[in-house]
Design a protein that fits this description.
CATH superfamily: Ribosomal protein L13
Order of helices and strands: EHEHEEHHHEE
Radius of gyration: 17 Å
CATH class: Alpha Beta
Strand order of the largest sheet: 5-2-1-6
Structural class: alpha/beta
């Protein structure tokens, strides 16, 4: 029996629309990561990009459990001495709620060329409107 390896020509990519309103951040991110990687498809291969495009709307209405909004801290560094900056989840949700979902999903995909290719298929929007109506994304039900 031969090992099945999907070809680029045979991969069918769909567009999924995910509504983040009232959803818990981590649970939403895992579902989105599965769709982006293509792990929900029978032709999944760890070394190929078989995933779909995902459009996340209403990012500003995401929720978290416990006291994460006050306690969770995101760090960035400018690579210069003393260039460490920290931001709480509460501040990041107020300024850039799209970034919160992007960071959560990025933590769940591989950190290599394939992961960067997969991550480009994620589109996150603050409100309910998005410019991808022409692709006719399907509503994803969890």
């Amino acid at each position: 029996m031969k090992t099945f390896v999907p070809k680029k020509d045979n991969i069918v990519r769909r567009w999924w629309l995910v509504n983040a309103e009232g959803r818990v951040l981590g649970r939403l991110a895992t579902e989105v990561a599965v769709l982006l990687r293509g792990k929900n498809k029978p032709e999944f291969s760890a070394s190929c990009d078989t995933g779909d495009f995902v459009v996340v709307i209403n990012a500003k209405k995401i929720t978290t459990t416990g006291r994460k909004t006050e306690q969770k801290v995101y760090y960035t560094h400018s690579q210069y001495p003393g260039g460490l900056k920290s931001t709480t989840l509460k501040d990041l949700l107020a300024d850039k709620p799209e970034e919160v979902i992007r960071r959560a999903v990025w933590g769940m995909i591989p950190k290599n060329k394939l992961g960067r290719q997969v991550f480009k298929k994620l589109k996150v929007y603050r409100g309910p409107s998005h410019p991808h109506d022409a692709q006719k994304p399907r509503e994803y039900q969890f």
